[in-house]
Amino acid sequence: MRSAPLTLLLSAFLCAIGCSDGGDGGGETGGGGGVDATSGTGGAPGVTTGTTGATTGTGGAPGVTTGTTGVTTGTGGAPGVTTGTGGTDGTGGGTGGSDGNTGGGGSTGGPAERTPAASASTLREAGEKANPPLLIGAAISASGLNDGNYSRVAAAEHNYVTAENEMKWDALEPNPGQFSWGSADRIVSWAQQNNMKVKGHTLVWHSQLPGWMNNLRGAQQVEQAMRRHIENVMGHFKGKVEHWDVVNEAVLTDSDTGVGNPRMRPTVFYNELGEQYLDLAFKIAREQDPSVKLYYNDYSIDARNDKADFVYEMIKGMVERGVPIDGVGFQMHIGPPNNEAGGEDVAYNLKRFADLGLEVLISEMDINRCGNQVTAEEQLTYYHDIVEACFLMPKCVAVTFWGINDGRSWLNSWSTAMCNGGNSQSLLFNDQYQKKETYNRVMDALLGR
Ligand code: 9MR
Description:
Layout: H1 6-14, E1 47-50, E2 55-58, E3 64-66, E4 71-73, E5 81-84, E6 94-95, H2 123-129, E7 135-140, H3 148-157, E8 160-163, H4 169-172, H5 182-193, E9 197-204, H6 211-214, H7 219-236, E10 243-248, E11 251-252, E12 263-264, H8 268-273, H9 277-288, E13 293-298, H10 306-320, E14 327-330, E15 333-334, H11 343-354, E16 359-367, H12 376-391, E17 396-401, H13 411-414, H14 437-446
Parallel strand pairs: 7-8, 7-17, 8-9, 9-10, 10-13, 13-14, 14-16, 15-16, 16-17
Antiparallel strand pairs: 1-2, 2-5, 3-4, 5-6, 11-12
């Protein structure tokens, strides 16, 4: 355990850092129709094809089709043509049926592996050409977009955007019921111009929360304010933001590394509403927009530690209760003061969460060298092996880096002191926007090397 002066611990606490559709598992085979409910005649066994999630079923075996990870029972559906909607987790099934009934679908589960592109000249291209594709993201700041080099590299190398600060509560709703969209809109329209998807970050979080919200008391008041915020924000970005971090960093441990006494973080949401605030936030979000992906996001759940176990149980409970959650973001802030995780640790965690039927994603990756506490060689190995762990798992739908170039990293203004003045050197590009060796190792992982 490293020790840090009290002021630094305090600032770490205050600044607590906490954390694709295109990836709908390719190769899934949706089942074909089913028996016509009235005539009782079944069609021929379904012929199904899956590419990257779209699944077309023709005909259909009567009644029941089963998948390896999903079992779907077909009810009705004429033996005519049915179109499968594919599935993200092997539970997808065909829908339709010419008589208006629902054709039963089946699935043989998603592909076991992701196939890399043969070659690529940008990370974005490597992600897009992989099968199924992998989104390559970056945290973008509106001020960064004023810098031509920044926006050029950001758009060339990524196809997925998370606003670094501009969609947080304090930015969007600084006063109760008064919304301010300017900087967030700017990022969204820049993303649209560059054909990038957007992940909204973040609806419910204790940090960067305006004082008026932090000071609210009473379950009814807090629930009302949370509902108003989620509805307005998701409503404003409807059709433009396809993924949302609904709840961010709800869990706390004694150390930022995810070790010791894991528990629910005492926030205005938890204090006034209890743990069920998470279920509630996801339900409100789902009601607001049934088509977006809804994620839980956290830091230091990348390694095998107390926090990862606690969050796993929390998310498992939500899935079992039928809470509308689509996935879990692993922030992947590696290095002091957060956890250090090797590729195997990350693979272990990604897999166990994915096995709950969820998407997983790397949502805020950077690796803080913190002076030389993480050596250059260790950093390269982490970058390669962690990105590889996600790449190898089709249910891992995105890798987002938390910034573009070292000089603009949030780590320089937060933990520099913890690292004895060392530059974090945490990202893939240097201050002249040249590719670093970290970039090459990430590219290797994306190309299966
Ligand atoms: O990068 C963000 C930085 O500019 C802000 O000052 C900081 C405030 O908390 O938030 C940073 O982003 C955080 C993200 O929203 C949630 N996970 C941890 C990130 C790094 O602290």
